Amino acid sequence: MEIFISADRSSPTSHLRPDLGVRFSNEGTQSRQWRDRDLILVEAFDFATTSLSIEFKLKPDADPFRDNFKHPTRPFERNADQARKVRGQLAKYADGQFSQQHRCFVWEVLICGNIARIMRWDHSGALVSEAFDYIRTDYLVEFLWRYFHMTPKQQGWDDSVALVQDAAQKALLYDAIDTLAADDRLRKGDNLSFATVALDRSFPIHKVEVKDKYTCETHHFLLGRAFDIVHGPIGRATRWFIAYDLGKAQLKILKDSWSVDRPTVLQDMDACSLLNHIGV
Predict the structure, then answer these.
(1) Any alpha helices (H) in the chain, and if so which ranges?
(2) From CA 204, how far away is CA 220, in angstroms rounded?
(3) DSSP 3-state assignment of 151?
(4) Predicted confidence (pLDDT) per residue in 236-271, tens digit
């Protein structure tokens, strides 16, 4: 596990910079610029690999929420300009993780002076804890201890996606996209920007498992950075990838989206699978 300070260094993929991040480092990771007896890193915030973000505000009145135990009809969200800015900041941090990672949900910690709140985001919204004094109680320590002992799935990672460490598998994706980028037909229309983004070698490579409910086949794809993203922590969160089909040894365009879960709405994947199955 690595803890890093990033308040003065923006993310390489955005201008956002949460104050503190927690990353579970991979074997062989070499970290730089350590502080405090090699416990805390100082580096840019990397939304692609960070597991948990922690945001600090100096005073308790920076809390963008209010616990209305005496006045339950009052809004939970404070309406002051600063409160709206802080909520927007937290929402952007959640979106940063959703857009750069493969997540079902993410956790955040907000600390305002001596009080703290714990937040859990998914694509339908956020659950926010009551405010608590983290100095006089053990709630924050208890949460962090439990978080560090959770499985990746409990932390919110999508367990149908696995990080690829093998250099040979990474090369399959990179070499195929390099070949695509060298295609003269694409160069004529200056249509290579998507391939340039997908070839970002600083970005982690993942293997995704996709099951076809009509053929009962399981497909495995390698993919890196999304070349197009619909931003926002709430909603369908559609992303587009150049993916390498391991079974067919060819590139495909893979759409990742949280679909509307209603019996009257035909899902995109179901529509494509049905059309492919009947040969359309």
Answers:
(1) 81-100, 139-148, 152-155, 167-181, 184-188, 193-198, 268-277
(2) 16
(3) coil
(4) 889 999 999 999 999 998 988 887 777 888 777 778
